[in-house]
Amino acid sequence: MSFEMQIFSFLFLMLGSFKIIVPFVKIAMNATPELTSQIDSVFTTCSFRL
User: Fold this and answer.
1) CB within 8 A of 9, min separation 6: which ones?
2) Vertex 35: Cα angle to 28 and 17 (nearest 5)
3) How many angstroms separate the first and last alpha carbons of the chain?
4) Per-residue pLDDT tens for 9-46?
5) What are the backbone dihedrals phi and psi of residue 24, each rounded to the nearest 5 degrees, phi first?
6) CB environment 26-38: b (16+ within 10 A), e (fewer)
7) So what's the pLDDT on residue 10?
8) Helices 33-49 and 3-29, axial angle in degrees (round to 10)
9) What are phi and psi of 30, to 5 degrees?
10) What is the pLDDT of residues 17-27, one digit of tens each?
11) What Cα–Cα distance (Å) separates residue 4 from each residue in 1, 9, 22?
C-alpha cells in the first residue's frame, strides 16, 4: 500500500471516530451530572470489555 493511501486510510478512520464521538460530547455538554456519570460509566465498562 502506498504512503498516500496509508495516510488517506488513517484520516478516514479518524474522521469516522469523530462522527461517533461528537454526538455524545454534544449531549454531555448540556447534561446533568447524573447523566454525565451514566455516560461515563457506560464508556468505561465498554472499553475494558473490548
Assistant:
1) 1
2) 40
3) 28
4) 888 888 777 777 888 788 878 888 888 888 778 777 76
5) -65, -35
6) eeeeeeeeeeeee
7) 85
8) 150
9) -105, 15
10) 777 788 878 88
11) 8, 9, 27
